[in-house]
Amino acid sequence: MAVEDKVPAVVEWLLDGEGKDSEMSARLQSRIEDGLKIPKTDKKALKFLKELANDGDHDAQCMLGLAYEHGLGIGLSFEDALKWYRVAADDGDGFAKGCAGELCFLIGEINDDEGLIAAGAGYGDTDCLLHMALDCEREGTEESYRKAMGLYEKAAELGEAMAFRCMANLYENGKGVERSYEKAAEYYGIAAGMGYEVAQCDLGYLYEHGMGVPQSYETAARLYSESASKGYPRALNNLGLLYHKGLGVEKSYEKAFSLYMEAARKGDADATNNVGLMYQHGRGVEQSYADAVIWYGKAVEMGNPKAGYNLGSMYRDGEGVERSYEKAFELLTVSAEKGDSSAQYLLGRMYAHGEGVETSSDKAVEWYTKAAMGGDDDACFSLGIMYHDGSGVPQSYEKAVEWYTRGAELGGLRSQNNLGCMYKDGEGVPQSYEKAAELFARAAEEDHPRACYNLARLYFDGSGVPQSYDMAVDLFKKASEGGFADASNELGRMYMEGDGVEKSDEEAFRWYLIGAEQGDPDSMNYVGYMYNYGEGVPQSVEKALEWYRKGADNGCKDSQFNLGLMYSDGEGVPKSDDEAFGWFLKAAEQGHGGAQSNVGYMYEKGMFVERSCEKAAEWYLKAAEGGNAIAQCHLGRLYEHGEGVPQSYSKAEEWYSKSAEKGNEGAAEALERIRSVPPS
């Protein structure tokens, strides 16, 4: 029939308004063509439709539902709309089922009516199905996870992308089903193919980490990019991480920072933390501790544990803020209790060293252990150190090995190196140079300087590996380049003595100088020595003094002794028994035999100090027991003449003999002399 001048609002809406492209519009058109005549006024039309609806007419029931739902010629009422939709839906009308399902979800959400949500799910509404499934997931039992999977499957059959993504998530985490990264990738792939940005990001993560699919940073970057182009914050952050590390894309701190910032502005907590990280280290943006503190603070407010660790570290170190162990402790505690292993580790350090809290080995072990079990290799290393040294815990090489092993398995280079030392020395494990070499090599491959040095020593000695001076030299050089001064010093010794390399004073000086500049006191002494005697470098007493003094100030007993000699002889400095005695005493107190002998001599002769043969004998004895031939001879003389010690030819003979055995001619002559003295 043709609609003339005036038509009811519901008819107009279906034929010429928003509903003209709907299934109901086509159904109405067909009924009109078949002779259906609807009154022209709203009141009469609705009365007419109700009569038909009460007689079971599905079209009329649906039209009444539309009228109430959209307020077409009648007051808007979702409840009345749903009533009429459900009448038709329960009688099998497909259009009515769709409408009823949507309204069940809408009214159910508004009124928190789970019964309506369930009814909507029964009509096949995907929102209702997803709502119920998510509620099941939140219950957190295996049975509820299985129910959730069933509901997701129903929604997936209806083409709902989110349902495929949620099914994938259950497979990824093994909830209600056997864990399967392959099935997770399959369902993420379906949802991603439907353009669902969340699934695109999830699938990218699987490709990034090679979970259920071949590992591919390039594919991960492509998927993250597709998701990020739709503004999904997590994808923006993850793509930023790839640019940050140069994985699958060309490394660019600037691009990473831009992506982090975009995600942060969309409320992503991880990205907000990462913006702080970039400001802190000046990557992709001008370095600014102040801005780092601001962004870390924002991420902390969003509940990000890693940001709590980062901000806590800044308060602990006084970077961008006034140092405050108390504030650091507060922030780290919150993050640690949320399970952040880095915060747990640093909290353990604060307890171990009494930073802002009372020192507590028990608390340190507690937090180190939590961090270690959470995969923090630094915590494993710290526990290994504590048990190895018996620091705050009962000493146990076996426990040290246990924690070093865990740290080594986590890729901790320091743990790998220290575990290698345990095998080298047979502490807590059967001694094995081969196992030590294997562990040192793992860390050395990652350029760990100390491990390079330790492996070099094994190659030098041929312990656990084929003897090779070339390998030793290469590894010593690698360790030196990493700033390990002991390696530089060792290279200096090798070239000075021609031990495994062609002797070269010039090369020896070069390596000693590198070691000295790296802060090694022994190398400082050797640089001074070579300047003093013009070996490998033009002779310079002034330079010798400069380096001896640096070594002495850094606690090198050889430098202290040599500096004492220069003051004693007036070499390059005004002669001064005062200065000489002071430096000899410093070296003597560290066990330097020559210095102990000289201190004894100065006491014996009363040089700068009040003469005391008793003191002289005391220092000579220390040096003599350490094997110093000169001190042994002096001590023999004191016993021979009974100066500072009871006179004793037998004691004199004992010490003269030891000195003579070391080639001291004066001692040999004295020994011959006292042996010719008749016993008294």
Content of β-strand: under 5%
Got a strand count? 0
Distance between the termini: 154 Å
Largest sheet: none
Summed over residues and divided by their number, the pLDDT gives a mean of: 95
Q: What integer value in Å does the Rg equal?
A: 42 Å
Write structural notes for this entry.
The chain is mainly alpha-helical and 680 residues long. Helix content is 72%, strand content 0%. It has 38 helices and no strands. The protein has helices spanning 9-15, 23-33, 42-54, 58-70, 78-90, 94-111, 114-122, 126-139, 142-157, 161-173, 181-193, 197-209, 217-228, 233-245, 253-265, 269-281, 289-301, 305-317, 325-337, 341-353, 361-373, 377-389, 397-409, 413-425, 433-444, 449-461, 469-481, 485-497, 505-517, 521-533, 541-553, 557-569, 577-589, 593-605, 613-625, 629-641, 649-661, 665-675. Helix 15 packs antiparallel against helix 16 (269-281) and helix 23 packs antiparallel against helix 24. It starts with 8 loop residues before the first helix and ends in a 5-residue tail after the last helix.
